[in-house]
Amino acid sequence: MNRYHPPEKYGNLNDDVSSILLSTEEIEQRVRELGESISQDYADLNPLLVGVLKGGVPFVADLLRMITIPIEIDFMAVSSYSKETRDRGLVRMQKDLDEPINGRHVLFIEHIIDTGLTINYLLRNLKARNPASLKVCALFDKSRRRLIDVPLAYKGFDLPDRFVVGYGLDFRERYRNLPYVGILKSEVFHATNND
Ligand code: PRP
Predict the structure, then answer these.
(1) 131 touches ligand 1 (CB under 6 Å)
(2) What share of the chain is helix, strand, coil (3-state, %, to 5)?
(3) pTM score of the predicted model
């Protein structure tokens, strides 16, 4: 299936946003606080931070630079059920970790938890590899949409059950590069949402 949708226009992305839900400054401040907490909690543990492509890239990149202790990083890429199938909970791993994690203190970095099905699958998968510890840091939490309980050691913000873009969150692969979280103008959303 070809998912490429050429832009309606090549203007400024900011013009497509009707309102800002979380400003650049709010996000920066919260990410700084999360980095400080992680630096304290994982001092002397040489944790492995695991990010999820693609939406997690801005959060991981910013969080890393707020952490002051030695860490290592790795990435996973998954394709979630909602994009390809109605079989909820089915997750296809597209990129696995580069190294084994047995005996490592692993902190899983997710930019958004929605139903919780993706992270639940990934946590079960990683737990089976016998890490010394396995915790989750999530920046955005749409807890009202949760279908399965997910223990969050670190959490950035609660998000309402609305479609939002920016700071890694996309609409048709766009808007990830907005430095804030906002709501698209309805004409933008509907103009390209008719197939
Ligand atoms: C996000 C996130 C999780 C999933 C969470 O990825 O990284 O994988 O959604 O949703 P869930 O809690 O309902 O399972 P997304 O599918 O948006 O992929 P992307 O990061 O490449 O945009």
Answers:
(1) no
(2) 30, 30, 45
(3) 0.91
Ligand 1 centroid to Cα of residue 40, in Å, is 28
> Dihedral through CA 54, CA 46, CA 114, CA 63, nearest 10?
-60
DSSP state for residue 138 in the 8-state scheme: E
pLDDT digits (tens, 9 = 90+) for 58-86: 999 999 999 999 999 999 999 865 555 55
Q: What are the residue boundaries of the structural domains of the chain, listed by start? A: 23-161
In CATH, 23-161 is 3.30.590.10: no
Atom of ligand 1 nearest to the CA of 120: 14
- Residue 115, ligand 1, Cβ within 6 A: yes
How far, in Å, CA of 15 to CA of 174, rounded?
13
